[in-house]
Amino acid sequence: MPRVVVDVMPKPEILDPQGKAVLGALPRLGFQGVTDVRQGKRFELEFDGDVDDAVLAEVEKMAETLLSNPVIENYVVRVEETA
Amino acid sequence: MPRVVVDVMPKPEILDPQGKAVLGALPRLGFQGVTDVRQGKRFELEFDGDVDDAVLAEVEKMAETLLSNPVIENYVVRVEETA
């Protein structure tokens, strides 16, 4: 059964304090070479039928209205085959 | 420049209250057909050099020690080409 994944990330121009906190912690844990870290949300949605274009259009609307804040976040909707 | 993405999701057997909250809200907003929603975190890491196997091994360690809680979360590390 395929599932639909919605990735929600802060817009590039928006400050990402969580990402900055992780970026700051990495050298203290001995990790080098990381120039930037951004943290967002990942949603996995499962459906009781096939995932067709109509379902993907619905998920776009869900992402726009519920899963993300379009003022400060971007989202990407994609289908993922489950193992 | 490629970036490394770390997806962190609650383990299947772990209760996911955020996912359940979204699942409960969808019908109230007029969305039907969704049988399950799980919410996790997505990290995008950028590096000042090439992303090779050594870097990916480091990211696995970052995911294990900082980005996820291995007791209740699973993580997946992958390379993503940036547009």
Automatic annotation (TrEMBL), chains A, B:
Subcellular location: Cytoplasm
Alphabetized Pfam families for the sequence: PurS
Primary location class: cytoplasm
GO BP annotations, alphabetical order: 'de novo' IMP biosynthetic process
Keyword field: ATP-binding, Cytoplasm, Ligase, Nucleotide-binding, Purine biosynthesis
Enzyme Commission code: 6.3.5.3
Known pathway: Purine metabolism; IMP biosynthesis via de novo pathway; 5-amino-1-(5-phospho-D-ribosyl)imidazole from N(2)-formyl-N(1)-(5-phospho-D-ribosyl)glycinamide: step 1/2
Matches recorded under Gene3D superfamilies: Phosphoribosylformylglycinamidine synthase subunit PurS (3.30.1280.10)
Record-level GO cellular component terms: cytoplasm
EC class (word): ligase
The keyword ATP-binding is assigned to this record: yes
Any one Gene Ontology molecular-function term assigned to this protein's record: ATP binding
Alphabetized NCBIfam families for the sequence: phosphoribosylformylglycinamidine synthase subunit PurS, PRK05974.1
Homology family: Belongs to the PurS family.
Role, per record: Part of the phosphoribosylformylglycinamidine synthase complex involved in the purines biosynthetic pathway. Catalyzes the ATP-dependent conversion of formylglycinamide ribonucleotide (FGAR) and glutamine to yield formylglycinamidine ribonucleotide (FGAM) and glutamate. The FGAM synthase complex is composed of three subunits. PurQ produces an ammonia molecule by converting glutamine to glutamate. PurL transfers the ammonia molecule to FGAR to form FGAM in an ATP-dependent manner.
This protein's name: Phosphoribosylformylglycinamidine synthase subunit PurS
Organism: Nocardioides soli
